[in-house]
Each structure stands twice: as C-alpha cells, then as structure tokens.
Design a protein that fits this description.
The complex is a heterotrimer of chains A (about 500), B (about 40) and C (about 190).
Chain A lengths: L5 H21 L1 H9 L3 H24 L8 H26 L5 H12 L15 H31 L1 H7 L10 H29 L4 H16 L17 H14 L3 H8 L5 H4 L1 H24 L5 H16 L11 H20 L12 H19 L9 E4 L1 E4 L2 H27 L4 H12 L15 H15 L3 H15 L2
Helix pairs in contact in A: 1-3, 1-4, 2-3, 2-6, 3-4, 4-5, 4-6, 4-20, 5-6, 5-19, 6-8, 6-9, 8-9, 8-10, 9-10, 10-14, 13-14, 13-15, 13-16, 14-15, 15-18, 16-17, 17-18, 17-19
Chain B lengths: L1 H5 L3 H30 L1
Chain C lengths: L8 H14 L2 H6 L4 E2 L1 H6 L1 H4 L3 E8 L4 E3 L2 E7 L20 E7 H4 L10 E2 L2 E12 L5 E13 L2 E2 L6 H27 L3
Parallel strand pairs in C: 1-2, 5-8
Antiparallel strand pairs in C: 2-4, 2-7, 3-4, 4-5, 6-9, 7-8
The chains are: A mainly alpha (about 500), B mainly alpha (about 40), C alpha+beta (about 190).
Chain lengths: ~500, ~40, ~190
C-alpha cells in the first residue's frame, strides 16, 4: 500500500475545485430562469450559491495548484469526493428556498438529482418557483450526462473489464479515443434528443391545454427528468398530471432512450443499425422486461383493478418501463401500489429496479450487461458439462463488437453484482427495522439504491433521519457502482496506514 | 471519427430507437394477453 | 404521504348521516355527498369507487381544457391555506386529487396555485372513480359541479434582509478567490 503524498491530495483537491466551479456555472441556468420570471428572491438564492461555489472552487484550485496529470487512481477518488462536495454546494439554493425541512433533506434532494434517482423530500412542490424547478431538473440532467462521461472514460473499465477488450481489438478500434471525444459524442447525442424530445413534449402539453409558457417549461423539464432516467417532475403529481396516452408514449420513448448505452446510440448514429437487435444489453433488457411484465400482469390480473385490456396495458407498461429503466415517472399515486396493485405486481416492479438498464447510460441498478454476462456464464457451464473433456468451450457476446467471454470480465461482473445485491438486502433490512412492511421496505430501498425513484409511500420528510441518510448514501454508492467509493476508502486507509 | 459520425443520421437513429420501444411494447401486450388468458 | 388519524371520521359521519336519513327518505335525497380527503380516496379506493363524494381543495397549476371537459388538480394539504412562498413552514408533502369536470364549471377557477399565487379554493361534487377505463385507468373525481369557496390571492415575495447581507458578504470572498486564482495561475507557468 503506497501512502498518497501531499501532491496526490493536492491533485484531488484541485480537481474537486474544478467540479465545484462547474456546479456554480450550472447554477447560472436557474439564475437566468429566476430573473426571466421576475423571481427576485429565488435569484438571490442562486446568486449566493454561485458566489459560494466560486469561492470554494477557485479557492481549492489556488491553494492546491498543480501541474500533475490526473491518473486513474486519482480519478476515482475525485469522482467520490467531488460528488459529495457538489451535493453540499448544490444544496445551498434548496436550503435557502425554505421548502426543505432540514439540511439533510436539502442534500438528499441534490444527491437524488445528481444520481438521477428522482426521490424527493422537497415540500410544497406545487408552489415551487420556476427557478428552483429549473435547478432540480438541470441537476438531474447534468448528473445523468456526467455519469455517462465518467463511466465511458474510466469507471466502466474497472467495473466491467471491457476496456481491455476494446484495446485488444486493435489500434483504431477504440470506441472513444479520449475524454474530449467521449464528451463531444455524448453532447451531440443528448442535445439532439433534447431538441427533439422537448419539442414533442411541449407541443403535446400545449395541445393538452397548458398555457404556452408552462407547456414549454414542462416539456423541457420532463425531457430532462426522463432522458436522465431521473424521474423529477415539476408537480407533485409527477406524470399523472397530464392524463394523456400520447404524452405517456413520448415519455416512454425518451426514458428508454436515456437508458440505452451511449456506445449503442453512437453505433446507431454511425449507421450500424443491426446493433439494436444484436447488442447483449438490448437483448437482456428485452428478455427481463418480458418476464417481469408477465409477473406484473399476473399481479394486476389478481387484483382486478384494470379489467379493460388496453387500460391495463397502459398503466402496467408505463410503470414497468419506468422502473426497468430506473426512471421513476409514474401515472398512479404512490400508495396505489400498495393499496390496489398488491404485492405480486410490486415484486415484479422491484425485480425490474434491481436489474435496471444499460451500462454507460443514465440508468442505475445491476445493469443488463452484467445480467447478460452471468447468463452466458451459465450457458457456458452447461455446454461444458455436455461436451467431451478435450473440447474447448468458449462463449461469445456482442456489444458493439464480438467478444469472447473472459474470466476477468466475469470476475468483475460478479463482484459488482454481489455488491448491489448486498446493498439491496441491507436497504430492505433498514426499512424493516424501522417498522415498515417487508415488501414496502424492499420497494423503497431498492428504488433508492438502484437510482430509480419510484415510491410506494415509505419515503416522507417525517421518515427517521437515519433512514434518510442511509438512502442518500445508497443513492451515491449505487450511482458510482461502488468502485470509486471503495477507491476513496482505500485512499483513506492508505493515507493512515500506507508506507 | 467523431466529426465524421456527427454528420451521420441522428434522426434515423432516433427513429430506430423509437421503433425498438414500439416492438417491446407489442411483445409486452402479447405477454399481457397470454397471462390474462391463462389466469382465467 | 401523511396519514391523518382523522381519516376515518368522514366515513363515520357519513354512516351516521345515512342511518339518520333512512328514517326520512326525503332527507336522504337532500343529503350532500360526504366530504372526503385525498388521503382517504387513495387509501380506501375500493370503498369509495363509484360513490358520490364532495371534495374541497386549492386549484393548482393550470386547468387543461379538452373539448367540452377539463382536468383540474385540487390540493387539500396544509399549503392550501398558506403556501410556503407565502410564509408557511414546511409540514409534509403536497396531497391532492385529480378532477375531471365540464369545461364550463372549470372556467369558474381563475387563480391557480403556484410560486406566485395561492389558488382558488373550490368545492366539487361528483363520482369517485378508482380506475376509470374511460381515462386510461386514472384515479379521479368525475365532478358535475364546482363552487368557489375562497378566492385565491397573489403572493408578494420580498427578499429577506439576511439573504441580502449574506450575498453582500460573499461578494468580496468570491472576488478575492478569483484574484488569488488568477495570480497563482499566472505565477506558475504550465
């Protein structure tokens, strides 16, 4: 164990400072919104936030000025530390707004936004200013794109081991040569979707009877909440507000797109159309979705609340798609899950949240890639059993290119999968220990840890503070796939005990 | 590479993704009908 | 979501009223549908499904007119009296219900709850639908009448003095950081 030197700490502090300045720059968007709508009080909240983040961010960069390059072991620590500091700084306008019950709640909402979870503790959301609503949605959109950049540049390499495969394929074959290319590719895909998605949603919202300005704002916010698979919405009714099949269909298209691997988006942009039906993550998602849809259908058929087949489909498909992509949009009241949908349907939804969608997307959960790889491992073992001893059995999978399944990949896939399952179990335990029924505790705990954001009514501002903090930590761990938090813990231990 | 691909077919890509969602929805609808029929 | 300990009260009152009314059938016809809360409707959806109810709350956001009908959302939470921007303390989530009603009735509402205003408080009567197949399974009250109980009012926000002081004190701090950052950056060549 090598003890990090002063220069290493300085490097982490300096890069954290850059991220904090970035958070301050992002606050300019809600500041402008507040000024446009003459919300002077809100504008002051954001001005305070901007000044505080500039002071902290520039201060850190001045004190720890460095010319060293960022290495991977620093990178993971920066992700963890910057995430926490960004949460604290981002909470300033929330706290100043008067809508939060405590500092814990304000941090919870920022963590929920940045991790694209979508659970919230903000109170009286229906009287929230346009400025603060803009901040909520900008946070979730920026957090979503941020995690994709992080995942594509270094998180994915360590957690899935696929990076070696990209390099192994040959010189020019690497998907994204560096972080600048990665960010630019993500930028073009998501801005195109932003333009198309916001326009479609705003036009529908206007046709549904909303005044023009509100239709545009709601279109933009729901796009941001959907594409980031976050699940924030401007009203407490979430997407139940709109009562429209067309609006729901547009939302599904947007959040499913957000849950696709950006490498897949990029392959489609380059014209590799076959990728959409060959990709291991797409196949995994389609299979698990169909299975869980059968479970939810069985549960709803038992409860009998939607006798009409089309209505049944509209409610069940929307909620399951929202859960499986870890979005968290809903068209029912939270407690309706418990009161009318029942435990079987809820368990189908929980299973979808447990798995989640694609790696290198804005989605959370264990992710389709890992489920696909684990399935391949089972198939490989079965084939080995029925093959002669001399035969060499290999399993292949397709993700942009064809890969041979390697032990190293399997190892990292299993490690992270077990980490997720352990966290889900712990979150459920914490809920049950606090007196909530098993299924409800599992639903809410998995929803937070998989960055989904659906609620069955467990989470409230009145929930014990220990649980609110546990949920905040779970959102953080789930989002950065444990690894960078482990890196931070290792960094801390090495600082104390290393040589 | 990025610059060349950026001129690509973004709208066609969005179309393919939306079509994939529609395909998933039709499979799910068949699953629903099957489950309801078998539970009757 | 908060669960009021009083949530069974209206059911109890309704039962008492119904029993009393049974003695006099003319009173039964005259009895107004029971006043229910949004929490009761969600928690006891099966019980209330298909029943006539009265619901009171603050009109929120906007009214979405669709042809001759409209969607309206009424909140019956603590903030219907005084919203947070108007000075209330945080006291739980919003809670309310969706209402589908004739557009002519919905147009009686002129002020909608937002950051800028406390919306009109209105009373609607109609049939509660736990999962209406006509509206994609949406839970709502299919109201026939709407009555304005209390007009809404605009919320005037002034910036508190302490926030301005905080802002003013941060300006030199951020400025100093910026100057120090510029000096340091130019002192160390890359």
């Amino acid at each position: 164990m090598i003890r990090p030197r002063r220069a290493d700490h300085a490097l982490v502090a300096a890069y954290t400072g850059r991220v904090i300045v970035g958070v301050g720059l992002l606050m300019c968007i809600p500041l402008v919104t507040a000024l446009l709508f003459a919300e002077w009080d809100v504008a002051v909240d954001f001005a305070v936030g901007i000044l505080a983040s500039s002071a902290i961010g520039l201060g850190l960069q001045t004190l720890f000025h460095t010319r060293h390059e960022l290495r991977r072991r620093h990178g993971l620590v920066v992700v963890s530390v910057a995430w926490l500091v960004a949460t604290a700084v981002g909470a300033i306008p929330f706290w100043l707004s008067g809508h939060m019950g405590s500092v814990i709640d304000a941090s919870f909402d920022v963590m929920s936004g940045l991790t694209t979870t979508g659970l919230y503790l903000i109170q009286d959301l229906d009287h929230v200013s346009n400025g603060l609503n803009m901040w909520r949605h900008v946070l979730t959109f920026a957090g979503g794109l941020g995690i994709v950049v992080i995942a594509l540049t270094f998180l994915f390499r360590g957690t899935v081991g696929a990076y070696q495969l990209y390099v192994g394929e040959g010189k020019d074959e690497r998907l994204f040569p560096n972080v600048v290319h990665t960010a630019r590719a993500i930028g073009s895909v998501s801005l195109t979707w932003l333009a198309v998605g916001t326009t479609v949603l705003a036009v529908i919202a206007f046709a549904l009877g909303q005044p023009p300005a509100r239709a545009v704002l709601h279109g933009l916010w729901l796009f941001m909440g959907g594409f980031s698979t976050g699940g924030f919405a401007p009203q407490s009714y979430n997407t139940f507000w709109y009562h429209s099949a067309a609006f729901e269909a547009a939302c599904v298209a947007i959040f499913v797109a957000g849950s696709l691997n950006f490498a897949l988006h990029w392959a489609l942009w380059r014209g590799e159309r076959a990728e959409i039906r060959r990709n291991i993550e797409v196949i995994s998602f389609a299979v698990t979705f169909s299975v869980f849809f059968a479970v939810v259908s069985a549960g709803l058929a038992q409860s009998g609340i939607y006798p009409d087949a089309a209505v049944f489909f509209r409610k069940a498909f929307y909620l399951l798609a929202s859960a499986h992509t870890t979005t968290g949009f809903g068209t029912i009241y939270s407690r309706t899950l418990v009161v009318q949908w029942g435990p079987v349907a809820m368990m189908g939804i929980i299973a979808a949240m447990v798995i989640g969608a694609s790696t290198c997307s804005t989605a959370g959960g264990i992710k389709g890639f890992r489920v696909g790889v684990i399935t391949k491992v089972f198939l490989e073992d079965i084939r080995r059993m029925v093959s002669p001893d001399s035969a060499i059995v290999t399993e292949r999978f397709h993700h942009i290119r064809d890969y041979v399944l390697q032990e190293e990949t399997v190892r990292s896939v299993l490690t992270i999968t077990i980490a997720y399952l352990t966290m889900y179990a712990l979150m459920t335990l914490i809920g049950v220990m606090n007196g909530y029924p098993m299924v409800e505790a599992a639903f809410e705990g998995v929803s937070a840890a998989s960055n989904t954001g659906l609620s069955c009514g467990v989470l409230t501002p009145a929930m014990p503070a220990s649980m609110r903090i546990a949920y905040t930590v779970a959102m953080w761990l789930g989002r950065v796939e444990f690894l960078s938090v482990f890196a931070l813990v290792g960094w801390g231990i090495a600082t104390v005990r290393g040589r | 590479m990025v610059e060349r691909a950026a001129i690509g077919r973004p709208i066609a890509a969005i179309g393919i993704e939306v079509a994939a969602v529609a395909a998933l929805a039709s499979v799910a609808f068949l699953v629903e009908l099957l489950v309801r029929w078998s539970l009757q | 979501m908060y669960r009021s300990p009083m949530r069974h009260l209206p059911i109890a009152l309704f039962t008492i009223m119904a029993v009393l009314a049974l003695g006099d059938s003319s009173a039964l016809c005259a009895a107004a549908p029971p006043l229910v809360s949004s929490t009761e409707l969600v928690e006891e959806a099966d019980y209330w499904d298909g029943r006539e109810v009265t619901f009171e709350g603050e009109a929120i956001g906007d009214v979405m007119v669709r042809g001759s009908d409209a969607w309206l959302h009424l909140n019956d939470d603590a903030y219907a009296e005084l919203p947070i921007p108007a000075g209330a303390r945080p006291q739980g989530y919003n809670s309310g219900h969706a209402v589908f009603l004739p557009a002519a009735e919905a147009r009686k509402v002129t002020v909608f709850g937002s950051y800028r205003a406390r919306g009109d408080i209105v009373r609607v009567t109609g049939t509660f639908k736990a999962a209406d197949p006509e509206h994609g399974g949406d839970m709502h009250i299919a109201a026939t009448t709407l009555e304005l109980l209390e007009p809404g009012f605009p919320i005037e926000r002034t910036v508190p003095r302490w926030k301005l002081l905080l802002l003013a004190s941060l300006v030199p701090v951020a400025g100093a950081s910026y100057v120090a950052f510029r000096n340091r950056a130019s002192a160390l060549p890359r």
